[in-house]
Amino acid sequence: EEIIMKKTFLKKSLMIVLAVSMVFTVIGCGKKEVTREKQMMSEEDKNAIYTYETIEWDEDLKDDLGSVQFSGNSLYTTVGNYNEETGDYENYFVILNMDGKEESRFKIPNRYDETGSHNVGQMIMTESGDIYGIAYDYMSEDVNGVWTWDEFYSLIKFDNQGTELWEVSLGSNSQSQIDESGEYFYVNRIIPDQSGNIWVFDTGACSCYDKEGNKLVTVDAIENSSGDVWMTKDGDFIVTKWNDDDGSVQCFEMSAIMQ
């Protein structure tokens, strides 16, 4: 019995030693890998990755700050403020320089009342300073005691003062349509390409619009109802798609799409 206990103790000790040595081996490999990566980086790359600077926001940007994006040499974001005088909640599109100092802002034309709402979201700014957003309009009506509703999506272009330059209809839903077909239209993402065109990804396809609101192409193959979209440095799209069974990641070459 004593021999068996000694063998068991030796086995456990050996397992512990092996486990500890594996941990240190992994840590050691990681350190070597990081060192090799650092050696391959230029000084500029190291500074870009390992240094940061704190940006101090203006006081009213701290109320309800949206995600901060960058475009060219500017930052932009949306911010919501409660107006105590009117009792309304107001949203603004704010452009800042790279130091976080505000350059301009305009009030986003949202509306809410008893008949419905008009809400502009998913706002982006291109490197040339063009500003776009997706407008969502909801209207409801009491017809002989039965409430019906309709929804409309559109792409809007603004100047930097908030003036609407043009609006293009993208799609719509109605209660009767949903009841009959079960299909629902939704704009998932808008993203600019390197030429300043705007790509609109919805539940059925993606469409490209130029700076004047003209539709250049529609691609039914790129369907992005619940995933996300990124653009590579070469200008191609990476699209994640999800369905009831599984998910997938696809890459679409821009030059092939635009032919």
Secondary-structure class: alpha+beta
Radius of gyration: 27 Å
Determine the N-to-C terminus distance. Answer: 81 Å
**Helix content range:** 10-25%
Number of strands: 16
What does this entry look like structurally?
The protein has a five-stranded antiparallel β-sheet. It has a four-stranded antiparallel β-sheet with strand order 1-2-3-4, with no helix packed on it. The chain has four helices and 16 strands. Mean pLDDT is 74; it is low at 1-38. The chain is of the alpha+beta class and 259 residues long. A hairpin with a 5-residue loop joins strand 14 (229-231) and strand 15 (237-242). It is 22% helix and 44% strand. It starts with a helix and ends with a helix.
Topology of helices and strands:
Blueprint: H1 2-40, H2 43-50, E1 69-71, E2 74-83, E3 88-97, E4 102-107, E5 111-113, E6 116-125, E7 131-143, E8 146-158, E9 164-174, H3 175-181, E10 187-192, E11 198-202, E12 206-209, E13 215-219, E14 229-231, E15 237-242, E16 247-252, H4 254-257
Antiparallel strand pairs: 1-2, 2-3, 3-4, 5-6, 6-7, 7-8, 8-9, 10-11, 11-12, 12-13, 14-15, 15-16
